[in-house]
Amino acid sequence: MEKKFFQPPTVYVGEVNINVTDLETSLEFYKRIIGFQVLEQTNNKAVLTADGKTPLLTLEQPDGVLPKEDRKTGLYHFAILLPDRSQLSSFLNHIARTGIRLGASDHYVSEALYLSDPDGNGIEVYRDRPAEEWNWANGQVAMATEPLEGQSLLAESNEPWNGLPEATVMGHIHLHVADLTKTKEFYIDGLGFNVVTTYPGALFISTGDYHHHMGLNIWNGEGAQKPSSKSAGLNWYTLIFPDENARSEAIAGLKKVGAEVTEEADYYRTEDPAGNSIRLYVFKG
Length: 285
Prior knowledge:
Blueprint: E1 12-19, H1 23-34, E2 37-41, E3 45-49, E4 55-60, E5 74-81, H2 85-98, E6 103-106, E7 110-116, E8 122-128, E9 136-137, E10 140-141, H3 150-154, E11 169-176, H4 180-190, E12 194-199, E13 202-206, E14 214-217, E15 233-241, H5 244-256, E16 261-263, E17 268-271, E18 277-282
Parallel strand pairs: 1-4, 5-8, 11-14, 15-18
Antiparallel strand pairs: 1-15, 2-3, 3-4, 5-11, 6-7, 7-8, 9-10, 12-13, 13-14, 16-17, 17-18
Keywords: Metal-binding
Pfam family, one: Glyoxalase
Protein name: VOC family protein
C-alpha cells in the first residue's frame, strides 16, 4: 500500500457510514471477523477504527430501521485496504477458519477478498500490488476480474490475524447508481475525478493515478431508485480534499453541473444524481 494515494494532493474516500438492523450483532461481526476497534459507541451508533484515532466505518441503527432493500442505488461494497500481502494472507487464514462465505478475485492491480456483513452490506478486503506493476495506456489502467491464487495467498504468512493493522485505510467505495451519463458528469465534470477504466455498465474513477478511489455501476438496473433512509445500507461517505482551495474548486464544479451543495459545521454536503450522500472534508493531517 502506497500512502501517497491516500494523502494530499489526492482526493480519496475517508469514512463510510452505514445503517444496520441490529447494532450489537453488527458490532460483533466487525470486531471479531473484520478486526475493527471501537473508537466511540452509544446505544444506536458505533464508530470503528483501525489505528485507534481515525474513523473508517460508522454503524448506525436508526429507529424503525428496515432490512436492506434490493435493486436500489447505494452501496455495492466498501473496500478495506491492508498494507501488504502478508496481512491479507493472515486475514484469509482467519476467515477460512470462521466458515464465512467468501469470494476472491485478482484484479491485476490488486488481490481482493469479498464478503458481506449480517445485513448484506458488501465488503472488500484487499491489498495493492506495487504501483510500478500497474499497466497504464492512454490514461487507462488495466484491470480485470480473474481467479485469485488462493493457495499462494494462504501460504504467504503464518502470522495470526490480530485485527486490522494500524496502517489500514478505506481504499475505495463502489456504488450502485441510476444513470452513468449523469453520474460521470457529477464525478468527473463536477468533483474533478478522472475515469481510469471501464467495465460493462460501470466506471472506475480516481485522482492522482490510483487504480480507483471509486467504482460506479448500474448493475441494479438503469433508473434504479434511491432506498428509504431507514433501510440498512449506505447513509453517507466522505471525500477528503487536500486543502480548502481544492474543495472550493470541487464545490464550484458541482454547482456548475447543477448539484446542490449545503454547508454544515465543518464540512459540505451533497448528493450524486442517484441520491448517494457525500460529505466533503479538508485533510487535517
